User: What shape does this take?
Amino acid sequence: MFHRYKLMSLIKTPKQIEAIRASGKYLNELLYKLSDAAKAGITLIELEFIAEDFMKKNAIK
Assistant: This one.
């Protein structure tokens, strides 16, 4: 299992750190939107549409 991590750089550049921070902020916002929408009666498809819409609005692939 350790061999997988040999390929990954454990030391991150400032640019990589900023990208990780930005993606974390988007993920946080998306999870709050989904948790607010996740009520009795909503379907998984509806939650998926909410997530997809959020990703399109924020240009997330």
Summary: DSSP finds three helices and no strands in the chain. Residues 26 and 58 are 8 Å apart (CA to CA).
